[in-house]
Specification:
The chain contains 9 helices and 21 strands. With 401 residues, the chain is of the alpha+beta class. The chain folds into 2 domains: 3-52 and 179-395, Naphthalene 1,2-dioxygenase Alpha Subunit, Chain A, domain 1 (Alpha-Beta Complex); 55-162, Rieske [2Fe-2S] iron-sulphur domain (Rieske Iron-sulfur Protein). The strands form 5 sheets. A 7-stranded antiparallel sheet has the order 13-19-18-17-16-15-14, with helices on both faces. Strands 6-3-4-5-10 form a 5-stranded antiparallel sheet, with no helix packed on it. Strands 20-1-21 form a 3-stranded antiparallel sheet, with helices on one face.
Length: 401
């Protein structure tokens, strides 16, 4: 993030703290709870948003060198992502061209060859068919046409994007927009290394998982013994890109240390925590030690369930520490990673599952998003617009529900 932008945001946070104000969405939004339970809507979301648009499947550090790979089954087809012998990020349908079995079953690692366990057809990191046992018995196969089916993929700003539709395109200029393309270029995500990977299978709609990252109003209640010790609740900055992405800045209690420091020494990661949303399901939170990447994926056929992937990436210089410092860094980073993951799993997602129970019972027709919850407004206005539906109603006051 450019330093002038950091200073502007920090000044806004300090002003809101001192004046007891917060960002204002301009009204209260009435949101239908059907969005969390409607099977037809869920199927459309899966097909259009998860099966046919660019998705971030990790960061550059997940593929540290030639032959490194990761696999994903989150987007409606099995994906094998690799870094080929030239260091290029590639992505393929993880399916052998012989009989369609998975070529790679491990979640991540390094291999010189990817060998199908069914008949031992093998492929290199560029997807080329390089091994076909008993070819004289099997019959001639043009190895070029029998290579793994490639998916459109691009590595940008240290992020790995894949289009899961084999016939689809990938336009990151449009998907990220000018604003995020400009801002992500400053964070140096390509220099981070993976430290921790968690997976949470939770009985709530994936949009409820997104909702929990959309406001700090709940910090003083739900997180009163955890996050509230580090962050001010109900104080934030919020901006959207005029389209389908946004950025929040949570307010850290450490912001007070900056009041007496010269502005050229101000650091947004001391004053706050940036929270970026990339439509439809990605949360990125860069901070002093690295970044958290959170992705929520719907469970096909069950609108009331989803899987979240919560990954932590750390700055390389921390990993390179030696001696006593290395132990201190290791303990510090492990505490951060585990503490954050525990808060999501044991506090946020417990509450999201509670909300889902009410939605499943059709006990409430709608819920209310406050003036101080603009990210929730933006989430659901964007969802509705992408579905071609009427936008949720915004009112000056709630007089009946």
């Amino acid at each position: 993030m450019r330093h002038d932008v950091q200073v502007e945001l920090i000044k806004k946070l300090i002003e809101r703290l001192d004046e007891g104000t917060n960002v204002d969405a301009g009204g209260l939004m009435l949101q239908s709870t059907a969005t969390y339970v409607d099977l037809a809507q869920a199927e459309t979301e899966m097909a259009e948003w998860f099966g046919d648009m660019p998705h971030c499947i990790g960061l550059s550090g997940d593929l540290p060198g030639p032959g490194s790979f990761l696999t994903s089954d989150d987007l409606g087809l099995p994906i094998l992502a690799t870094r080929d012998d030239n260091g290029m990020f590639r992505a393929f349908v993880n399916s052998c061209r012989h009989r369609g079995a998975l070529v790679e079953t491990e979640p991540r690692g390094t291999r010189k060859r990817f060998t199908c366990p069914f008949h031992s057809w093998s492929y290199d990191a560029g997807g080329t068919l390089v091994g076909l046992p008993k070819e004289d018995h099997f019959g001639h196969v043009d190895r070029e046409c029998a290579s793994l089916r490639e998916l459109t993929a691009e590595e940008r700003h240290g992020m790995l994007f894949v289009q899961p539709n084999p016939d689809g395109g990938l336009d990151l200029d449009d998907h990220l927009g000018d604003w995020l393309n400009d801002e992500f270029a400053t964070w140096k995500f390509d220099q981070l290394v993976p430290f921790n990977h968690d997976v949470y299978d939770t009985a709530c709609n994936w949009k409820l998982a997104m909702d929990t990252f959309g406001e700090t109003y709940h910090f003083g209640s739900l997180h009163k013994d955890t996050l509230f010790n580090t962050f001010h609740g109900n104080v934030q900055c919020y901006d959207d890109d005029g389209g389908h992405n946004h950025r929040m800045i949570l307010c850290r209690r450490d912001i007070n240390y900056l009041r007496h420091q010269p502005e050229d020494e101000w650091d947004i990661t001391v004053a706050g925590l940036p929270v970026y949303w990339i439509f439809p399901n990605v949360i990125l939170m860069p901070f002093r030690a690295g970044v958290f990447l959170v992705r929520a994926y719907p469970t096909p056929g069950d609108p009331g369930r989803h899987v979240s992937k919560v990954d932590f990436y750390m700055k390389r210089h921390l990993l390179d520490a030696t001696g006593q410092q290395a132990e201190e860094v290791k303990d510090m980073v492990a505490t951060i990673a585990q503490g954050f993951a525990n808060i999501i799993r044991d506090e946020d997602y417990v509450m999201s599952a509670s909300q889902q129970k009410a939605a499943n019972a059709r006990s409430l027709n709608q819920v209310v998003f406050g003036r101080n919850e603009p990210a929730l407004h933006h989430y659901h206005r964007t969802y509705a617009a992408k579905l071609g539906r009427a936008l949720p109603e915004v009112v000056d006051q709630v007089t009946s529900l």
